[in-house]
Design a protein that fits this description.
By secondary structure, the chain is mainly alpha-helical. Among the domains are: 379-495, Tetratricopeptide repeat domain (Serine Threonine Protein Phosphatase 5, Tetratricopeptide repeat), CATH 1.25.40; 612-656, no CATH class. It has 31 helices and three strands. The chain starts with a helix and ends with a strand. Residues 37-59, 484-596 are annotated as: Disordered. Keywords: Cell cycle, Cell division, Mitosis, Repeat, TPR repeat, Ubl conjugation pathway.
Length: 656
């Protein structure tokens, strides 16, 4: 039975011959990382032989394949495809199709770069415009479909067909093709990763082939689904058989980082770089850890090392960008993140980090564009959704922010930061019940910052539930004292309650009673309140101002009496005015107020549902015509005027 080591050796050769460099590197890393001694496959495995079933038809075609591979290695993809235009073997046909696909992708990237440079200059300015596309996709789909139906495809052909179908936005057919690819050739790691990107949480479970590579796929899928605890468990079990695998070690460090165990993740990355000092895969994540822990010296050393190794790798540019961001030079950080995107327009980390920098620079429009590009590349990236929520929260648009925070919370339901952010939006919308629920979810999911305790105490206190508020204040104080942090303002709020209006009134009444009982004020020589108000004021002395001024207490009481009299006269005038107004006028005024309230509410809803549609059409689309919307005493109907294409409001009284 074929061993793992023999399979990997054959896979490295086959993948390298076909230009699948990433898969070849993965197979070579697992070959070196395998524990000593042969490991036979489990009983009942369905692994197919690793070498292709067909051989090159003739010596002339073999020579053409070598020439095309030389062109391919020099990134002359169209020349490689032209050299293999009459190829009949599986290897030659695959290299021709793959060269055409890469030529189309290269041209697509060039067109997008040209449009960006001719526009606003900021990456992401293509939003709202038709995207450039790969012009060779229809031809490739037709040829691959015909080859599959006529003479069949090998694992490499099924993989390329799945990639083409994915680019053509046919995910169901793409999943089927990729499943056939991993079943026919299990060591094709690129097919596994593409299959993981097309497998959502709402999809049916995949029928995976019975092969040892499936365990790597399950661990990778757990990482992509942000199930980091399960990913750590799976990768630690893989370390038993693959103790020297750099891939397993780096993915384990990444899972620790996603669990916010920064100390353990940093230690694993440092061990990985000590073993392979010129490695650049994953160093952008390592730089994020150093950024969060504010280790400026180590981040500077890492940036110098990456630049000296390969300054034109996207990972190296992101490391340098993080270094400048930590120093506060956000403009320079943006330049390096742009450089990373010029090298790889689909480098997800650069889009997200550049969005963060634009937020720091208060350029919210560019930040939104960057985050949206990140979401288009990978809809499972919770950081981009969270960044969009933060940006719209800065713009004082809580409905938009709440929508994006919900997306982030669905991807990271066990992250307290997502729940705290969503609760903050509910607070802005004065929806305290939902805010309290979100803060409770944050509390249950290890709220390390203690935000949930403080906000729950404040919300319960505002609701008048002092007992629960006191309990959360005590838990907040205990948590901060355990971490050695200063409590400050929150402690003063908890221990010295603010006087309520009724309490202030009681204090004023108590002072008046004490003043009336004061013997110095209640003596017979002191005039009574009535006598003091009617008596002639004392003549000022010569040293005083020449203007006759009444005593302060008498003047203040006279002012209060005058104010109360004015209020009584204004109230009486208002009642007389209300009596003179007809019932129709009062009803029209109430309807006008209801109209204004309804228009503002519908405008917010239409902007959230249809952000790219003009306001009148968005309002009409948000609420279908002649659908009643219950309002206090009225019912709202929407009409679409064909002449002016605008939305008008008509309020009709509700019968009964």
């Amino acid at each position: 039975m074929t061993t793992h080591r023999a399979q990997l050796r054959a896979a490295v050769r086959d993948l390298s011959d076909r230009g699948l460099k990433c898969s070849a590197k993965w197979a070579a890393e697992q070959l070196v990382g395998l524990a000593g001694g042969p490991l036979d496959d489990e009983a009942g495995t369905s692994d197919a032989p690793m070498s292709p079933a067909e051989e090159v038809g003739s010596r002339e075609e073999e020579d053409q394949l070598l020439l095309a591979k030389a062109y391919f290695d020099l990134n002359e993809f169209k020349r490689a495809a032209h050299a293999l235009r009459v190829a009949r073997g599986a290897s030659g046909r695959f290299l021709r199709w793959y060269s055409l696909f890469l030529a189309g992708q290269k041209r697509q990237a060039e067109e997008e770069a040209e449009e960006r440079s001719g526009g606003a200059g900021a990456p992401g300015s293509l939003l709202g415009k038709p995207r450039a596309s790969n012009q060779h996709l229809p031809l490739l789909n037709a040829e691959l479909t015909a080859a599959r139906e006529s003479e069949g495809l090998d694992g490499f052909g099924h993989y390329l067909h799945g990639i083409v179908l994915r680019e053509l936005a046919q995910p169901a057919l793409a999943r089927e093709a990729l499943l056939r690819a991993v079943s026919a050739y299990p060591c094709l790691w690129s097919a596994w990763t593409a299959l993981s990107s097309l497998s959502g949480a709402d999809e049916a479970p995949l029928e995976l082939p019975d092969t040892w590579v499936a365990s790597f796929f399950l661990a990778h899928q757990a990482t992509e689904a942000h199930d980091s605890a399960r990913a750590v468990s799976l990768y630690e079990s893989l370390l038993v058989q693959w103790p020297r695998s750099l891939h397993v070690q780096s993915q384990l460090a990444l899972a620790r980082y996603n669990l916010r165990d920064f100390e353990e993740a940093q230690q694993r990355f440092e061990e990985l770089l000590a073993e392979d000092p010129y490695r650049l895969d994953g160093v952008d994540t390592y730089s994020n850890i150093l950024y969060v822990r504010e280790e400026k010296r180590k981040l500077s050393a890492l940036a110098h090392s990456c630049v000296s190794t390969d300054k034109y790798r996207p990972e190296a540019c992101c490391v340098v960008g993080n270094y400048y961001s930590l120093k506060g030079a956000h403009e320079k950080a943006v330049l390096y993140f742009r450089r990373a995107l010029k090298l790889d327009a689909n480098f997800l980390s650069a889009w997200t980090l550049m969005g963060h920098e634009y937020v720091e620079l208060k350029n919210t429009a560019a930040a939104v564009d960057a985050y949206r590009r990140a979401v288009e590349i990978d809809a499972k990236d919770y950081r981009a959704w969270y960044g969009l929520g933060q940006t719209y929260e800065i713009l004082a648009m809580p409905f938009y922010a709440l929508f994006y925070y919900r997306k982030a919370t669905a991807l990271r339901p066990y992250d307290s930061r997502m729940w705290c952010a969503m609760a903050g939006c509910y607070k802005q919308l004065h929806r305290r019940a939902e805010a309290i629920q979100c803060y409770h979810r944050a509390e249950k999911n290890d709220d390390r910052e203690g935000i949930a305790f403080t906000e729950l105490a404040r919300l319960y206190r505002e609701n008048g539930e002092d007992a629960q508020a006191a309990g959360y204040y005590e838990r907040m104080v205990a948590q901060r004292e355990a971490h050695g942090e200063a409590v400050g303002k929150e402690l003063s709020e908890a221990r010295v309650p603010r006087p309520q209006p009724a309490t202030r009134r009681r204090k004023r009444a108590r002072r008046r009673v004490q003043r009336s009982r004061d013997p110095r004020r209640s003596s017979s020589s002191a005039p009574t309140r009535r006598a003091r108000a009617t008596s002639t004021p004392r003549r000022p002395s010569a040293s005083a101002c020449s203007t006759s001024v009444a005593p302060r207490r008498t003047r203040s009481r006279r002012c209060c009496a005058t104010s109360r009299a004015k209020e009584r006269r204004a109230a009486a005038a208002g009642r007389r005015y209300e009596g003179r107004r007809s019932a129709g006028e009062r009803r029209e005024e109430a309807e006008e107020g209801g109209r204004r309230t309804l228009r503002s509410a519908l405008t917010c809803r239409a902007r959230m549902l249809y952000p790219a549609v003009p306001a009148p059409l968005a309002l009409f689309a948000a609420w279908s015509p002649l659908v009643p919307v219950p309002v206090t005493g009225t019912r709202l109907f929407l009409e679409l005027r064909s002449s002016s294409v605008s939305v008008c409001y008509r309020l009709q009284p509700v019968p009964g």
